[in-house]
Amino acid sequence: MIEINALHFSRLDGTQPRPILQDLSLSLPAGAQCSLVGDSGTGKTTLLNLLAGLEPCQRGEVNVMGQSLVGRSATELALYRRHIGIVFQQFQLLESLSILDNLLLPHRLLGRSGKPLRLEALAEALGIDHLMSRLPNQLSGGEQQRVAVCRALVHEPGLVLADEPTGNLDESNSHKVVSQLKRLAREQGSTVVMVTHSQSLASGFEYQLRLHNGQLHQADRP
User: For the ABC transporter domain, which residue ranges apply (predicted)?
Assistant: First the structure.
């Protein structure tokens, strides 16, 4: 499902490149549930963006769902992203659309009509089923975050990349979100990679990784 080999990524710091990821490798099978922890600024979001095709691969190889993301055109990467689910830290909800229409976007981008089969059940499980007619700016930060999670899962993608999907949530709603991420992996064989600062949430995942000094390590178990 995910194969990364000898990945390097740097950003310019003034005029000098600053290494973010260095000779990083990763192998995750389909259906893997993976948590990713690490200090702020270590490159966790950068790694997710590389897996989403939102950052260019500078050196190394990135293969997801049987296809290489290296050297792909912007159009090819946009089509690829229709088949994955992404939870951004900033939610990225479209302010002019109702919550229902925001949730239907992934479904419609795949050329599907009607409502996704699991939309109502998923919205109810995340506690947002009563918000369908509202606009994003009428919701709290926690409600927007749960909508963003629902949108990433509703089309049952083969890969979900979740960047701090519980950052604005209380303990109860955090567990609801993680439960739905794991359900998708368990029932649909989807691969889930979740960045989190919560050690307690991270410890409940099958694969627990820590990003440190540009490389991935097995996270310390509590």
Answer: 2-222
